[in-house]
Design a protein that fits this description.
This protein has 7 helices and 8 strands. By secondary structure, the protein is an alpha/beta fold. It has a 6-stranded mixed β-sheet with strand order 1-5-2-6-8-7, with helices on both faces. A two-stranded antiparallel sheet has the order 3-4. Helix 4 crosses helix 5. Pfam families: UDG. This is Type-5 uracil-DNA glycosylase.
Length: 218
């Protein structure tokens, strides 16, 4: 883990990934009033908890411009965030709902919407410097909570750690040191509709991971 010249947030019109740019423009041609850009992180700049998702959903964050806002995954995520005391206000699936995160921030491993919600390896790699910069820009960060394997693996790599020593699993918990700072890295299955509908992830399982984060932060 080293300092990166990249800013914590990608420019809205980021052009690093040609396939994502093409897809973003195709969606914008059909839905010009949507956000249709690299979605910025949302939350508290003094966050002790950083929640790291996969990528914007086409009708969710790509539409609204706020992570996990406008799709089903956000309903579960924001309800759980509220339950563990990391937000104020009422989540109404809209960026103008007045919701504020307290002590937490949400970002994505890939900032632009990918076709079929599946970024390829080169796109994950290209976006990783933004993730690293986002981590380094949070002075009080203690816990990173990764949603899904892609998020977990990219975060491990961003921290300069080895995947073989930190394999993904639901409820995994690793105390790590990167860049001279100590962090707790916890991971969950992604809170997607598919995972919850199939029972791979239940609300109780999701809350168990948040409980780890809350306990570590205090």
């Amino acid at each position: 883990m080293t300092n990166t010249p990249y800013p914590p947030e990608a420019p809205k019109d980021c052009a690093l990934c040609p396939r994502l740019v093409e897809y973003r423009r195709a969606v914008a041609a059909k839905e010009p009033d949507w956000f249709n850009g690299a979605v910025p992180s949302f939350g508290d700049e003094t966050a002790e908890l950083l929640i790291i998702g996969l990528a914007p959903g086409v009708t969710g964050a790509n539409r609204t411009g706020r992570p996990f806002t406008g799709d089903w995954a956000g309903d579960l995520l924001y309800a759980t965030i509220d339950k563990f005391g990391f937000s104020k206000g009422k989540f109404a699936a809209s960026p103008d709902d007045g919701l504020k995160l307290t002590g937490a921030m949400i970002t994505n491993a890939v900032r632009c919407v990918p076709p079929e919600n599946k970024p390829v390896g080169a796109e994950i790699n290209a976006c990783r410097p933004f993730l690293l910069s986002r981590i380094e820009a949070l002075p009080k960060l203690k816990v990173m909570l990764c949603l899904g394997k892609i998020s977990h693996d990219s975060t491990v790599r961003a921290l300069g750690l080895k995947l073989k020593d930190h394999p993904f699993g639901h409820g995994t918990r690793y105390e790590v040191n990167a860049g001279g700072r100590d962090y707790l890295l916890v991971s969950s299955y992604h809170c997607s509709r598919y995972n919850t509908n199939t029972g791979r992830l239940t609300a109780e399982m999701f809350e168990d991971v948040f409980a780890m984060a809350r306990e570590a932060i205090g």
